[in-house]
Amino acid sequence: MTTFPTVPADLFRFTTGPNAELHTAVLHAFGEANERLETALTLDDVHHELRRNHRPVSDEELKSALRSLRQWGLVDTVQHHATHYTSADDYERENLRHVLTRRGEAATAAARYARKIIGSTGVLEAAHLDAIADRLEELRTSDVRTYAALLELESHLDAFQTGVQLFHGELKRVQTQDDAKRETVAHLQTFVSDLDARKERIRQTLALIDAEEVRERALKSAHVRDELQWLQQRKDAWAMLTAWFEEQRIDELEDIARTVIVELLRALDRISEQRRKPTNTAADFRALASWFARTNNDDEAHELFNAAFGLWPARHAHLQHADGELIPSAEPWHNTPAVPVSPQLRRTGKQEHIGATGKVRDVEQIRRARKEQAQRERHELELAWQQLQTDGPIRISSLQELDHDAFDRLLDLVGRALAALPDSTGTRAASTSDGRVHIRLRNARGWAKITTQRGTLSGPDYVIEVQRR
Fold this sequence. Notes:
Blueprint lengths: L19 H16 L4 E2 L1 H11 L5 H13 L3 E5 L8 H8 E5 L1 H18 L6 H16 L4 H29 L3 H16 L1 H14 L2 H10 L6 H18 L2 H29 L5 H13 L4 H12 L33 H6 L15 H25 L5 E2 L8 H16 L8 E4 L5 E16 L2 E14 L1
Antiparallel strand pairs: 1-3, 2-3, 4-7, 5-6, 6-7
Helix pairs in contact: 1-2, 1-5, 6-7, 6-9, 7-10, 8-12, 10-11, 16-17
Protein name: TIGR02677 family protein
InterPro entries: CHP02677
């Protein structure tokens, strides 16, 4: 049974209670001073840090906070005897120096890490995978940088793990935000674009490394007190690395990313469809009627009518009456006889031109050629389906040489299946557009190569079952 070391009960007590904000600010002040290698602070030093990063407090408030932190074992007080003091107040302010204990350093680091995690967002960074692969290459080839490369490798693995965990937790939030959906799709597409090559590079390099020998080389330059504990920590980190890049686990991460891409794209499509409201003619006429009701006179009504129905001077304005001299040019159009307008002009914008009837072509030869082409294509299609039909589930990698037409049909079928959602067993199903051929597909956790007359294609292996109906 695995046992875990317990955390001291008072370690995070400074984060609760009415003075939690002041206690946290004081520890933060010590933490910032430690970064500048100022390990011991006087009362005035702490006052200065609080004024700079928090708010001014009185001596009594600060002394009370330091007493509480000292009771919880987070701060200790030491004396400085190198100076002569002229008063009791000077003695208290200059002689007493306050330092963080080991527990205080741990509490400060934990609080900073918690704030960092709360304020960070989950990402799947392909750069971490590249960095992991680079550090593994260094472990194989460089003895000088073994220790540094090993620690950098663990750091990149930890960052990758944290990003995956945070990203997985944020997916529910993404489902409710349209902008986040689009950003997530773009991010995931970038992550999975070259994931196959990255994970294969890491797996191959891991297979070539002797982990025990790497740890022994790193230990020579580590200069640690507890060698057994250090070696166990490195062993645990290496086990985590190999577990992450086992074939099944990293492939599951890729499957999750691709599934999320499909789901988010479908959600965005549904949102776009909802925003594209169909044209409602009745609503348009009601709006037009309200506009007519707001016109002030007939001229405005005529202008609105012309704008709404497009009855401006049009293409048929050049048409004339049979005897145009009988009608004065200044005569209003509504007092003149109508001019016949060709329906062809209204429909296409062109006048009818009556000409000689074209010769009727002999289409018998065209029909015969098309019939022969259709028969040939049907025969090629039957041959392709015969090549692809399986008696049961098979791996794509077991298909040795395919006719290029059959290869095209296979790619189309596999593409249709990958676009479909998997069922509870991880199986995807799809059919051709005519429904005559059906495919069932599931992951095979491997790599496949298919050769045709035009070359070789390599990609993820799948178990497929192709049936004709």
